Amino acid sequence: MEEIRDVVLEYVRNEYMEDQDEELTYDTALISGGFVDSFSMVSLKRFLETRYKISLPDNRATPEAFDTVNKITDLVMEFLGK
Amino acid sequence: MAYSDKVRSLYTDQLKGLQDGGIFKIERYIHSVQDAEIEVEFPPGAPIKKVINICANNYLGLSSHPDVVAAAHKGLDARGYGMSSVRFICGTQDIHKQLEQKVTEFLGTEDTILFPSCMDANAGVFEAVLTDQDVMISDRLVHASLIDGIRLCKATTDSFKHSDMAHLEEKLQLHSDKRVKLVITDGVYSMDGDTAKLDEMVALCEKYDAMILVDDSHASGFIGKTGRGTHEKCGVMGKIDIITTTFGKGLGGASGGCVSGRKELVELCRQKARPYLFSNTIAPPVVAGVISVLDTLSKTTERRDKLEKNANWWRQHLLEAGFILQPGDTPIVPVMLFNAKLSQDFARDLFAEGVYAIGFFFPVVPQGKARIRTQISAAHEMHHLEKALEAFIKVGKKYDILGKTKAEVTAMYGN
């Protein structure tokens, strides 16, 4: 689980952060906090699906479910059956 | 009464929130035509003050140009005030078709459709030409009207880091399975004044079989050697699938916009774009005005050449005076102040010196990147620019920011 959390954190940092020094924690509000624009959530969804070989239905890949690294990790864990 | 005290207080609280947050917008009343010098009442009730205007999108100085005004008068007399109908019922005149043809020739595209505004063009185009099998990949700093149009469309959305071609390529690879891929960008970005790398973007689109849409509102009429726009500047005339642009900036400054590009896409907009189907098009006097603007710009580059000369002079002299500018080569010249309050104080002091400019700060621009956005016009004569420069230097000295680095300015005022 720790590994998933860090992989997601690293992906979010590279994909969305303009300023690489900006503080990003497991609980940073990504979408509601304005770091991740909702238009590009699809990249994150596709990344998770490819990396973890899971399929996330659209009704579960919501801005709320993707709002923090912790929430994303929980979602991935659920679909991995862990 | 439906509008109860409870409902009213809901809205007064919302307005108070805007005021408390420092993002409540106040309009300045202009008592003259739009030009290099305007007469302004600000704040409301204050005596009218004549000031040099360096914050209009009046790039070519045509908003009150006698030739354009005369053409509009003629159009008013010949074709009336309005059409009282949408285009496909009884709202299409010969001059609407003429204007569409002239825009097509001017931009070097296949066909054009007029919209009441470019905001409407951007609101209608995506839904008209894309479906849920497609993807829209937009630059992260595109204009708000593109964002709204994208939101109205069922195609998948994605975005790439501003002007980052490697990131765009990753996205094109990621969405290789989509039926249609549409890359979306502004031609010139209005807050920073930088230009999209259209040559590189077109090459990527060709490599990955994608289409490209450019909103050239801050470019049409003056960017490129003959003012055709960003596609001319970048050497990709004829390779942009969709151009959206406005007649409310360089091309006369009144109102109206269009979608210009591949003929099938334009025809789909005519059949399906909701702002086109359910709203009157551009009024006859404005159509006549824009036709005269395009006729003039097709004959001579005099105005865009003067604009380029003015903008280069302005940028060079601000740099020499010691201001920090956002790099670029367009008539949009942002003077960086970094701190929000400083940008507001600076604009207020400029106004007192007879120069009208606006300070922009978060959320309009990123946190810590507050600035005065200056916009140069072909209507500016050298004495206007010299007086404006003098005012900038005087106010710059007052705040002791001339010749200072970003770190030194933010150390004094915060960011």
Describe it for me?
The complex is a heterodimer of chains A (82) and B (415). Chain A is mainly alpha-helical and 82 residues long. Chain A has a single domain, classed as ACP-like (Non-ribosomal Peptide Synthetase Peptidyl Carrier Protein, Chain A, Orthogonal Bundle). In chain A, 48% of the residues lie in helices and 0% in strands. Chain A has three helices and no strands. Chain A has helices at 2-16, 41-52, 69-80. In chain B, 44% of the residues lie in helices and 16% in strands. Chain B has helices at 5-20, 66-79, 87-91, 94-107, 118-129, 144-151, 165-174, 198-207, 230-233, 263-272, 274-277, 284-299, 302-321, 340-352, 382-398, 406-413, and strands at residues 29-30, 37-41, 48-53, 111-115, 135-139, 156-160, 181-186, 211-215, 242-246, 257-261, 332-338, 355-356, 358-360, 370-375. In chain B, the strands form three sheets. In chain B, strands 4-10-9-8-7-5-6 form a seven-stranded mixed sheet, with helices on both faces. In chain B, strand 1 and strand 2 form a beta hairpin. In chain B, helix 4 packs parallel to helix 12, helix 5 crosses helix 10 and helix 7 (165-174) packs parallel to helix 8. The longest helix of chain B is centred in the C-terminal third of the chain and has 20 residues, at 302-321. Chain B is globular and about 60 Å long. Chain B starts with a helix and ends with a helix. The mean pLDDT of chain B is 96. Chain A binds chain B through residues 18, 37-40, 42-43, 46, and chain B through 135, 138, 140, 147, 150, 156-159, 161, 171, 174, 366.
Outline the fold blueprint.
The complex is a heterodimer of chains A (82) and B (415).
Chain A: H1 2-16, H2 41-52, H3 69-80
Helix pairs in contact in A: 1-3
Chain B: H1 5-20, E1 29-30, E2 37-41, E3 48-53, H2 66-79, H3 87-91, H4 94-107, E4 111-115, H5 118-129, E5 135-139, H6 144-151, E6 156-160, H7 165-174, E7 181-186, H8 198-207, E8 211-215, H9 230-233, E9 242-246, E10 257-261, H10 263-272, H11 274-277, H12 284-299, H13 302-321, E11 332-338, H14 340-352, E12 355-356, E13 358-360, E14 370-375, H15 382-398, H16 406-413
Parallel strand pairs in B: 3-12, 5-6, 5-7, 7-8, 8-9
Antiparallel strand pairs in B: 1-2, 2-3, 4-10, 9-10, 11-14, 13-14
